[in-house]
Amino acid sequence: MATQRGACRIWWIRFVTIGLGMILCFCLLSSCCILFQKVETDRPSTNPLQIDQLEADVAQMTSVLGTAGPLPRHLQQADARKNGSEFDVNQFFTVLKHLSMQSGYALDYVYRFDGMGGSPVLYARPTNQVPYNSYANLEAVWQTESPTTSKDQYDRYLEFVQLDGTPEAFFQLVVLRTMGRQFYQYWHAGYNDAQILTNLQSLDQIQPMFPEEKLTAGLMEKARALSIEPQIQFQGDRVTLQVMIFTHWGGFIQETYTIAGVFPHRILNQTNETLLEYNCGVSF
Prior knowledge:
The protein is α+β, with helices and mostly antiparallel strands. The chain contains 5 helices and 11 strands.
């Protein structure tokens, strides 16, 4: 009898030990799965961009800007005022099809002209609001809303631009910001000449702006060794986009944008790194 009781006790201990071991293994496995899921959630997600489409976006935007034509004479004066016959910036959305204005708002601009140059200043307005006809009128409103008027005010319209959530939409937002003011440029405004590069073929679009400018074969050969294609990463509620630009007054510059992943899509941060210096040597 004592032998049977001892055997039962040993069997029971083994059963409990195995059971506890299985429970412990299950708990450990569950913890590992939760940790793995958290790591996967925190890890940046890289969504490939369709490079051919990005190249087309830039080319089509350039084409639309070309339809603006020369700067109208009535804008070539201090306190320049629009009369309604000027270029319509809402044409941008015919090629930047992943973007649209927030419902009830329109994209518009005034013209800022002074003794050092002239260029358009974009802004968003309610569709039922009469457009501002001069930069002075718009600036007065900005001063009322925020006394610390700065260049950041020039980006305020981006907060009213909606994206369809695709990777290409974030690229097109940067295209709009970079190229959206590259029309009706006068004198010193010509420094705003950034060209967005999307692949090696886009290097062929870089041409001298002035007869005395020298874009050497050696420089372009070095440029072909750069990583030019745009890169995008999604992480939580933020998106990181890297874009290569070329400017005749700086060279090849990699711009890195941190953009809010949800509306309004504010540009939270921007850093620039010059990878290959160049200066055309011309000063306005």
